Amino acid sequence: MDSEGMTTLIMLEEGRYVGTSSCCASRFPEFYVGGETVSIYLLPEYMGRGYGRPLLEAAVSVLAGQGYQEIFLWVLEENRRARAFYEKVDFRLYGKCRTDVIGGKAVRELAYCRHIP
């Protein structure tokens, strides 16, 4: 755990860090009953090679193990590749959006949700 309630997962290949994901209880009141995948990152050379799915599924498993049946995440609206990936692994556009500032630039983020039976 890197901060109270946050779980950070690390993906290694042959002892090399290739990716990370963080998850926790929702940080947003409109998703108060859900778990949140806060981040998922892979080194660029590992993208598109099948590492993203197990890394994301590990975060989903952590949240499901904590009793969450609804899991959500935010994704940049303009990040078509990430959005296609999340849709492929059963996350659905939730209909909520927000504006955030990243690197001094205002960006629009969309909420994606996934139900865990």
Written description of the protein model:
- The chain has 117 residues and is α+β, with helices and mostly antiparallel strands.
- The chain has a single domain, classed as Aminopeptidase.
- Helix content is 20%, strand content 46%.
- It has 2 helices and 6 strands; from the N terminus they run βββαβαββ.
- It has helices at 52-65, 80-88, and strands spanning 7-13, 16-25, 35-42, 70-76, 92-102, 105-115.
- The protein has a 6-stranded mixed sheet with strand order 1-2-3-4-6-5, with helices on one face.
- Strand 3 (35-42), helix 1 (52-65) and strand 4 form a beta-alpha-beta unit.
- It starts with 6 loop residues before the first strand and ends with a strand.
- 23% of the residues are buried.
- The mean pLDDT is 92.
Total strand count, please?
6
- The CATH superfamily bears the name Gcn5-related N-acetyltransferase (GNAT)
Give the number of domains: 1
Poorly predicted runs of 5 or more residues = none
Give the ordered list of helices and strands.
Answer: EEEHEHEE
What percent of residues are in strands?
over 45%
For this structure, the CATH topology is Aminopeptidase
Write out the strand line-up for the largest beta sheet, numbering strands in chain order.
1-2-3-4-6-5
Q: State the CATH architecture.
A: 3-Layer(aba) Sandwich
